[in-house]
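Following up on my earlier thread - several people asked me to post the actual chain instead of describing it. Fair enough. Here it is, all 285 residues.
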Amino acid sequence: MAKEDEKKESGEWKEFFWNPRTHELLGRTASSWGLILLFYVVFYTFLAGMFCLTMYVMLLTLDDYKPTWQDRLATPGMMIRPKGEALEIIYNVGETESWDSFVEALDNFLTPYNNSKQVDNNDACVPDKYFIQEDSGEVRNNPKRSCQFNRTMLEDCSGLSDRTYGYRDGSPCVLIKLNRVIGMLPEKEGQSPYVTCGAKKEDSDSIGEIAYFPPNGTFNLMYYPYYGKKAQVNYSQPLVAVKFLNISRNTDVNVECKINSNTITQLSERDKFAGRVSFKLRINM
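Reply from S.P.:
Thanks for posting it. Predicted structure:
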């Protein structure tokens, strides 16, 4: 009986897969399979068409040079160079290999700011005045020009007079930059935004004297507004160099730098990089 049941079950499975009497494959005739395949072809073709149409309509609303929708950032992000690991700059003055990577990082970062490249690619703009380049109706004023930010403006932190940016002498330079925000006008009444740095409360006695380059640590108004990477291909982001002249040795100093502007009245507690940046500086002897 067991063998007969097995033969019967096997025969049922074979007949289900292909029934020679009704010419059914897996329980369906050729016409039934054809109708199902036709339905799914039409259905998925319709879905693909809807997707393509939606993408096409969406792309019609986009501007190649400016975001159609843009969050108005009240406070741009801030970052340092060199940034090291976990925003820590730690080295030993007497061990060249401990600060070589910082010097190399600054060299690479400042190469596009060499005076010769800036003169070739950018304009000598009028300081303390927005460099506004409006379009003429539907006619694009592209590519837009950019203002020169010459490496020599960083003076003692340019890497030209001191190839080690002060790291060899224990008076290191740190470069600060603001993130680019299209269309941002960071001032009112002609006041340029500027950077100030200081130590956290517990380290206030260790930070010593600080020098800023350009003077007063300003981001000059002539570098604003920014029109976007595609519209302003040669844009040179303004920088502020901070030089720690006599910071305490062999101790951790937690430094915070922030942007000051009459358009930025309050820093966000949610975003620790909005308008400020904190890093640890330790110089061992």
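The chain has a mean pLDDT of 87. That should answer part of your original question.
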